[in-house]
UniProtKB/TrEMBL annotation:
<dbReference type="Pfam" id="PF01926">
    <property type="entry name" value="MMR_HSR1"/>
</dbReference>
<dbReference type="GO" id="GO:0005525">
    <property type="term" value="F:GTP binding"/>
</dbReference>
<feature type="domain" description="Hflx-type G">
    <location>
        <begin position="2"/>
        <end position="169"/>
    </location>
</feature>
<dbReference type="InterPro" id="IPR016496">
    <property type="entry name" value="GTPase_HflX"/>
</dbReference>
<protein>
    <submittedName>
        <fullName>GTP-binding protein HflX</fullName>
    </submittedName>
</protein>
<dbReference type="GO" id="GO:0043022">
    <property type="term" value="F:ribosome binding"/>
</dbReference>
<dbReference type="GO" id="GO:0005737">
    <property type="term" value="C:cytoplasm"/>
</dbReference>
<dbReference type="InterPro" id="IPR027417">
    <property type="entry name" value="P-loop_NTPase"/>
</dbReference>
<dbReference type="GO" id="GO:0097216">
    <property type="term" value="F:guanosine tetraphosphate binding"/>
</dbReference>
<dbReference type="GO" id="GO:0003924">
    <property type="term" value="F:GTPase activity"/>
</dbReference>
<dbReference type="InterPro" id="IPR006073">
    <property type="entry name" value="GTP-bd"/>
</dbReference>
<dbReference type="InterPro" id="IPR045498">
    <property type="entry name" value="HflX_C"/>
</dbReference>
<dbReference type="InterPro" id="IPR030394">
    <property type="entry name" value="G_HFLX_dom"/>
</dbReference>
<dbReference type="Pfam" id="PF19275">
    <property type="entry name" value="HflX_C"/>
</dbReference>
<dbReference type="InterPro" id="IPR035647">
    <property type="entry name" value="EFG_III/V"/>
</dbReference>
C-alpha cells in the first residue's frame, strides 16, 4: 500500500491539509511542533486505491545534530514513504528559505531521494490566485497550488496524486522457494500480495503490486529477489 507523507516547514499548514483530506480532527495550531507524533489515516486515491497519509512534525531551520536521531525515529513514515507532499506556505515572504530548510532536514534524515510533490498552500492569502497544477517537461505534476483552509484546489491535489502514484507502481509475478518464508512475510507486511498459490514443486507463486520506491528498497535488502521474478 503506498504511503504519502506530509512534510513542511512549521506552520505551513500540514495538519490543516491532513484534516481536509481525511476529515480528521488533528490538532492544528500556529506554533512550533504543534504535531508531536506522526498521525496515519487511509485515503482513497483514484486508480491507486487505499493509500496511507501520514502527518508529521513541522521542520525548522538548523536542526541541532543531537535532535537528528530523534527526528529520524519520529519521521519513520517519511523515510519509508512512496511520495512526499512538501507543504509550503505560499504567502510567507521567506518561502525560498523555508523550502531550503525542509530540504536540508530531509537530507539529514536520509529522505532526500524520495519522490516529492510540492504543495503551495494558503493561496487564499494571495491576491487573485486560482488553484492549478504545474508540470515538468514530461507532463508530470510537480507542484499544486491550493488552500487547505477553503478547500480550493484539493481535487487537483488528488488528481496529481493519482498521476504520481499510479505511474510509480511495481507489478510482478514471483516464484518463491520454500525457504523464502521471511521474504513472503515481508510482502504480507507491505500488503503487496494480489494473488498467491502453491506450485507442485513446493514453491509459492504470487503476484505482487507495490509502490516502486518500496520495491527498490526491498530489492536492496533482499538481493535474491530479482531472481524470483517470472
Amino acid at each position: 500500500m503506498p504511503t504519502v507523507s506530509l512534510v513542511g516547514y512549521t506552520n505551513a499548514g500540514k495538519s490543516t491539509l491532513f484534516n481536509r483530506m481525511t476529515s480528521a480532527e488533528v490538532y492544528a495550531a500556529d506554533q512550533l511542533f504543534a504535531t508531536l507524533d506522526p498521525t496515519l489515516r487511509r485515503i482513497d486515491v483514484a486508480d491507486v486505491g487505499d493509500t496511507v497519509l501520514a502527518d508529521t512534525v513541522g521542520f525548522i531551520r538548523h536542526l541541532p545534530h543531537d535532535l537528528v536521531a530523534a527526528f529520524k525515529a519520529t519521521l519513520q513514515e517519511t523515510r519509508q514513504a512512496s511520495l512526499l507532499l512538501h507543504v509550503i506556505d505560499a504567502a510567507d515572504s521567506r518561502v525560498d528559505e523555508n523550502i531550503e530548510a525542509v530540504n536540508s532536514v530531509l537530507t539529514e534524515i536520509e529522505s532526500d531521494e524520495i519522490p516529492t510533490l510540492l504543495v503551495m498552500n494558503k493561496i487564499d492569502m494571495l491576491d487573485d490566485f486560482v488553484p492549478r497544477i504545474d508540470r515538468n517537461d514530461e507532463n508530470l505534476p510537480i507542484r499544486v497550488w491550493l488552500s487547505a483552509v477553503s478547500g480550493e484546489g484539493i481535487p487537483l491535489l488528488y488528481q496529481a496524486l493519482t498521476e504520481r502514484l499510479s505511474g510509480e507502481i511495481a507489478h510482478h509475478e514471483l516464484r518463491l522457494p520454500p525457504q523464502a518464508g521471511r521474504l513472503r512475510s515481508r510482502f504480507y507486511q507491505l500488503q503487496a500480495i494480489e494473488k498467491e498459490w502453491n506450485e507442485e514443486d513446493g514453491s509459492i507463486g504470487m503476484v505482487v503490486r507495490m509502490p516502486i520506491v518500496e520495491w527498490r528498497r526491498l530489492c536492496k535488502q533482499e538481493h535474491d529477489l530479482i531472481n524470483f521474478i517470472v
